[in-house]
Amino acid sequence: MTKVLSAILLSSLILTAQAAKAPAKSAAPAKAAPQAKQWDKLAFPKLGEVKLPEIKRYELANGLKLFLVEDHQLPLIDGRAMIRTGARWEPAEKAGLAGVFGQVMRSGGTKSLTGDQMDEQLEAIAASVESGISSDSGTASFSTLKGNEDKVLGLFAEMIVNPEFRQDKIDLAKIQVRAGISRRNDDVGQIAAREFRKLLYGPDSPYALQTEYWTLDAVTRADLQAWHQKYFHPNNTLLAVWGDFRAEEMKARIEKVFAGWKKKDNLDLPSVPQVDSPRRATLNFIRKDDVNQTNLRIGHIGGRFDDPDYFATSVMAEILCAGGFSSRITKKIRTEMGLAYAAGGSWAADYDHAGTFSIRVDTKSETTAKAIEAILQVIREFREKEVTDEELKVAKESILNGFVFNFQGTGQIINRLIGYEYYHYPPDFLDKYKTNVEKVTKADVLRAAQRMLQPDQLVVLAVGRDKDFDKPLAQIAHGGGRVNTLDVAIHDRKPGTEVAKAITDPAALQRGRQILARAAEFAGGAEKLKALKDLETVAKAKLTAQGQSFEGSMKNVYVFPQVTRQELVLPIATIVSFFDGNTGWSQNPGGTQNINDQQKKESLAGILRQTSNLLNGYGSPSVAFEKREGDFDVLQVSKDDVMFRVYVDLQGRIVKKAYRGVLLGPPSDVEESYSDFKAVDGYQLPHKLTIKSNGQPVIEAEVTSAKVNAGVDAVKLGEKPK
Question: Is 12 helix (H, G, I), strand (E, B) or coil?
Fold first, then answer.
């Protein structure tokens, strides 16, 4: 009857939550301030001209484009390479490939050094070398003190040219991604942003592709190697280096470290995926019953930086939604109607494909429909007449005052400029931005609004508790009155994948009950089992994860049928979790977290699988004989969407359970094996437990003490450790 550590406990161990608490600030005594001028009477000097540094451009013999900027203010040297690649080109059936590649290219080390050895060498000289893959580009970067550039450049070049993609680091990266998948529905804002993007671009668009457990499982080391061979070539790369050096000397260093990197004559790069989204108005809803406010997203596909109306559209967006307290959305929704503390939005353009137009408002559940209708009205009215002189003036000043923040350092400037080169924009695009914004008129803004804002294409998404809405979404005059309810449940298998069906044959069900009765008799008998109120076991335990083993102790306490508390004490951490059948929490060195919906589902399935609950018929699951396997009768136990197998030997001992579940973050095929049965106050309890995930040992435990019916207080059991 010893039970496996819950998903809550193990997930907490592998990915400890990070909590940052800001220190409280003591209030300073108030001082009398001199009378300030009226804000609208203040005078400011004209914005100064932005001076760009001198950039020396080269193309090396192997096709590598090199950009060098001398900056002798500090003894630092930084570099950043951009490679023409990106997650938008990964196969849909292997979504997640690019993210794993971007991490393991660095963590997996090179042919001569492991990633850990690289860490040691770089940390010793306060330097860094990093890599990553975004939606539309690959990057590699370095940073070092002057004097260490030869060593760091060597590591940087070796990582780009000869990454090793070691399997242990691939496995670690996948664990981290899977943990993210398991928690992706915890935050309502993240749900709204993710699903809204899918609604705008379409679920199959490469700009809205979502990594799933099965797509991540399909990614192999060979895929990472093939990705590298396809994209990582010098004539497909731009490299910028800036800092305290002489340009000609740095050029010679770059040529030396990349001397063996050969040009590829036929790159055969894929074309840029364009946006082909469903352009019609829709009303969409995601149920989230554990919140008391609705997270709203309203918008449609946006534009590109090279659109002729881009500058007018930027001013338009500033006035409509992006300008903080001066925007019409904030004035209407927050200031006038009091429907939200924060309301705003953006017109997010992209370089080579359409971006998104999005308005976000968080409002009380009871004012959801009212807020949606008000936002739609503001957008419609914006297209009807010109903005005021004051709105135009404030918007342009706000944009231009923020313009200087594009030039806070040499690195920021050069990164922006090589970005223009990467996306085939003119190098003076940034220079023209200020001039073109200054030229925008009220007529330009109206023209842009009438062209860009399309009320008949607006997508509305509401995430919240619909039973509290002020009126049904279907009564809102938008999208034809049809509401699409979206499913955001996290599935561990690809939709449509065939799964085992519950056995319904009467003879199999009858035999299953007989075998389970035999198991109950061995465990102590039906009457003894019904009298079982609580159980406490303490065990020596060894946990194996990521190729490392940790020995410690494990304590499990149950108040039947639903209350459980589990404690795992290891040299690296102490983890405690609690579940009462409805809610639960886990505590680790990073803090305390309430369980999410997926963890609750796993915990409820664990309660159904608990041996004494199974033998007592808790939850009234269906139990059917499936097959005879050697000396074991295999039973299929099912209830709703929970299904598992139980192996019973000829003596009636339950020696194994098999199911699809969560141990270390990702769903896997789990086996719990039980042995060394001993009597404890008339109950037969297994004293040894082995748990495997996908055939690999995860937990080995040996019970050192067991107590039954000790009068455990379920309320005290739920108290969190201090």
Answer: helix
- Across the range 355-369, mean pLDDT stands at 96
The reply to whether 563 and 698 lie within a common domain is yes
Cβ neighbours, 10 Å, residue 676: 11
Bridge partners of residue 627, in order along the sequence: 634
Mean pLDDT of the chain: 90
pLDDT digits 0-9 by tens, 343-354: 999 999 999 999
Q: Place 38 in a pLDDT band, splitting at 50, 70 and 90.
A: low
Paired tokens of 688 = 């040894």
Q: Which of 421, 452, 485 is the last residue of a domain?
A: 485
Calculate mean pLDDT across residues 609-634: 95
3-state secondary structure of 367: helix
Q: Is the dihedral of CA 361, 363, 368, 369 positive or negative?
A: negative
Token pair 């999005």 is found at 358
> Which residues are paired to 465 by β-bridges?
none
Rounded CA separation 627/636 (Å)? 9
| Rg for the chain, CA atoms, rounded | 31
Cα distance between residue 236 and residue 264, in whole Å: 9
Q: Based on the domain organization, do 318 and 252 belong to the same domain? A: no
Q: C-alpha distances in angstroms, 276 versus 131, 203, 205, 279, 347?
A: 31, 11, 8, 8, 18
Per-residue pLDDT, averaged over 248-252, amounts to: 97
Token pair 């004494």 is found at: 612
User: Residue 671 and residue 644: Cα distance in Å, rounded?
Assistant: 10
Residues 549, 555, 559, 564, CA torsion sign: negative
User: Alpha carbon 342 to chain centroid distance?
Assistant: 24
Single residue among 485, 519, 547 that ends a domain in this structure: 485
What tokens were used for 701?
């435990």
- Reported for 220-228, long-range contacts at CB under 8 A and 24+ positions apart, including other chains, are 221/165, 221/167, 221/170, 223/94, 223/97, 224/97, 224/100, 224/101, 224/104, 224/105, 224/165, 224/170, 225/165, 227/85, 227/97, 227/98, 227/101, 228/101, 228/105, 228/163, 228/165
Yes or no: say if 305 and 351 are a contact pair by the CB < 8 Å rule: yes
Helix, coil or strand: residue 410: helix
Q: What is the pLDDT of residues 210-223, one digit of tens each?
A: 999 999 999 999 99
CA dist 402 → 311, 318, 348, 399, 433 (Å): 15, 12, 16, 5, 12
CA distance 284 to 281: 10
Q: Are 710 and 559 in contact (CB under 8 A)?
A: no
Indicate whether 19 belongs to any domain.
no
Is 570 inside any structural domain?
Answer: yes
- pTM beyond 0.90: the answer is no
Within a domain: residue 10? no
Domain range enclosing 241: 56-193+204-257
Tokens of 336: 């006038």
